[in-house]
Batch of 2 targets.
Target 1
Amino acid sequence: MVDKKEIIQEIAKLMESDPNATPIEPTVLEFLSEKDLVSVLKNLYKSKETRSEQNEEWFQELCKQP
């Protein structure tokens, strides 16, 4: 099972790569429950997936242009 500190580290990494994420200090995340941290993590992964899909669409459109 993943512990709280590992979840917080993963959240911090994902927030760095997400321009839409609201920056949150890792020390603040320590006050959240594990359930809340997992929810934040899932939302960040969903955002990352959406950005990847948007980038893929943009790239495909770019490839179609002469």
Target 2
Amino acid sequence: MIFIAMKYIISEQRFERLVNKYLNTLDFMDDNHNEDGFAVIYNGSEAMAYRNRHKKLYISTDLIKDMKSIFNLSQKEVMDYVRIWFRNEYDVEVKTLWFLFPDEPFTY
């Protein structure tokens, strides 16, 4: 059996566009909007949540795990890419990043 591995060299900007395109294809739905923030749902679960008052973005550990696997990124890199995408997509400031654990209910 023969395996051929190919490595591609792409610019950081092009890679960011690739990650953004991936996130844009996930069909996120906004939910639970109120003055304190909102949740972003994917496949019936909270993938992200945002709190206006403290400008906190919570990112699901499942989303982080999936993106680490797909893009071969570290946890920090995934969270940074998601933060940039979220900031641009929702036009909000994100000061801090937190984990959102899918098995625990998230309350504002």
